[in-house]
Structure formats: C-alpha cells, structure tokens
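Reply to dn_fold:

You asked what the input looked like. This is it:
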Amino acid sequence: MFCPKCGKEISPDEQFCWNCGTENKRFVSQMQAAEKPGASEKDGRYLQEQDRNELAQELQKTEPEAVSSDSASHDHRSLLSDSTSGNYGSLSSDSVSYDYRSLPSEKESGLKSFYIFDFLSGLTGKSNIPLCIFLVLNVLIIGIICSLFLTLPIPWGLLSGVLLYGASVTVALSPIGEFIIRNQNNCREIMDVATVNRLKPIFDEVYYKAKKKNPKISGDVRLFMNDDEAPNAFATGRKTVCITRGLLDYDDETIKSILAHEFGHLSHKDTDRILVVAIGNVVITGITTLFQIGVIFFHCIMSIVALFMDAEDGFWVSVFSAFASFLSLIFVRGIMKVWTALGVALCMKTSRSNEYEADEFAFSLGYGESLCAFLSNLSDARPQGLFASLASSHPEPTDRVERLLQLAQEKVLLEVE
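and this is what came back:
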C-alpha cells in the first residue's frame, strides 16, 4: 500500500509512514478490530473494506498523486512516449501508478511562446553570463570570417554573423536539434518488454510529481536509452530524457532520483544549453570543414602541377604543398580544440549552477536520499560522447552530496519551527 500524503510505499503493519509520518489508517482500524470484544472475522473484513473506502475518499480530497491503472493493453513500443493515455480504473491500495497526462499544462504566452525567444529570455540570469559570452564570441568569429572571405565591410560581416548564427541556434532549438542529439548519442526508443514494464511505472511516477510541481513541463516528454554501460542520464531540449543501459543495474529508487534530477533540468529549461552548445556551433564547424577541404584541394592541384615540371622543381613544389597542407590542417584542428575547451570552460560555471538546482528539484520531489546514495557510490566507469562532456562540467559528487545534506538539515529546522 502507499501513503496517501507523500505516495511512498509503506507496509500495512506499520502505524506511521516512514517518510512523512502520516498515520496508517488501515493499521489503526485493524488494531481497533482486534481489541474490540467479540469481533468476528466478518467484522474484520468489514473494517478493512471500510478503511479502503475512507482511504480512497481522503486521496480524492487531497488531489491524489496516484490512481490505479489498466494500462497493460498499451503497445510496449509507445509506453514511454507520448502515446494515448492509459485506462485508469478504481483506486487500489496495493497497486498504484501515476497518470501525468491528467495534469493541466501551462504554456508561455506572447513572445515566449516562440522557443527561440523563450530561450533568449532565460539568458538574463547572472549564472548564464559565461554562456552569453560564448554565444557572442561565436557571432564575432563568424562575422569576421564572413568579412574576410566575402570581402564585406565589418558591420555587414557582423550582421551576417548574427543572421547565420541565429539561424543555427533556431535549428538547434527545434525538434530537429533534439533529433540530431538523440542520434549522435545513439538514444533509441526502449523496445524490450521487460525493460519497459520496469521503467514505465518509475518514469510515470517521477513525471507526475515533476509536472505537478511545475505544470510548464511539456506533456510529451519521452524516455530513451543508449547502450553506454556507465550509469548516467541526460535531458535535452524540452521533450527528451535519455538514460544509459548501465543505470538499469541500480534499484528503482535510485533510477527515480536520477530521472527526478533530469526533470529538474527540464523544469528550469537549462536543457536548451545542451542543444545550443552541441548543435548551434555547427556554423563554425562547417566553416572549418570547408577550410580543410580547401587545403586538401590546394594540395591536389599543386601535386598535379608538379607532374608537369622538371624533376627537381616538381619535387620541391610537392614537398612545399604537403608541408603547407599539413601545417594548415594542424592549425585549424588546434584552433577548434582550443575553441571547444574555451566553450566548455565558459559554460562550466553555468552547468555547475544548473546541476545544484536540478539536485534541489529532485530533493523537493522526495528523492534526495536516493540521489545522495547514488552520488556517494558512483562507479569508475567513464561515460562516452555527450555524457562525458556533460560529466566533465559537473560539480564534484561530494559537493553535491553536501548540498543535499544541507537542504535536508534546513527542512528539518523548518519543520521544528
């Protein structure tokens, strides 16, 4: 059975909920029935049935976080996506699931209803200053390159940089951007029936609590998984949460805490940063790629020219061409490596701040203890791809655990007062 106040699973033999301290009415009714003189087995069954009815009424009065589900009829391919909602029946104290689709959704109004303007409005916070610097530097570099190669005046070149980079960011913040990120990191829909049957109630519970706390979270968030063996997860855009296969080795409560953390990112909309950094930089990447192709083309032309020259001159032309091409490619790749490192450094402070906020969100949903346990016992497995980039900018696990413990202490003090 589950606590009517906090939704945690409790034993029928416990008088109080271990999580929030709410009295277990079934236990009290059973004790009263046992102490009543001459109480028969029939009376005991009646009291249990009466207690169930009272519990159902109380859950309905307090806007329940749980309703029973007959969702076995769903196709397993769409259980974790935005498919049709489940068929929910009568309340049961032994089997509970969470219908997040029944919760109301709030959408931004005015200019914020456009993804790009909503993203830009979110950059006004102090913690996003490093990210803003990175975006401005991207625009300046693109503008200078446009001025040099298109022989445009500096103001027109900068305007071209703004337009090009704005277009790339707009694409990044669209469903196309989320699709690209998912494919780059081999995130796939979960098809295995056993895995779906395990993850669906976990995902539904966390999704329900997160959306109840922040109705602006999209009603179409979908869960994906990749084959990375390191336990991890990431959220991107507004509708994507991806976990690694390695996370399946952990217990359900731990997985809930990780998902709650990722829903914290979705709630604060800092998942847009991943799209902008990973996809929005495509213009600069494209320019450097074109430059490298140009260098290779120049080397091929010079090699052909050397064939029509005498042996000695042709030799030196070939050597010069190969050496110049080699240096050019090394220079361009070195610049890109330095630029990527600079971008990570500038965005690191923003990322750290976002991680603490996402941890606090998970704590507010009731998963602080499980998240602490997970962070305290992280494995040595190294994540791959985007997971590695994100992990490199995260705060130290010990610092995050300390923050969570501090939140727990503050909560206890508030309850005492």
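The chain has 14 helices and four strands.
Hope that clears it up.
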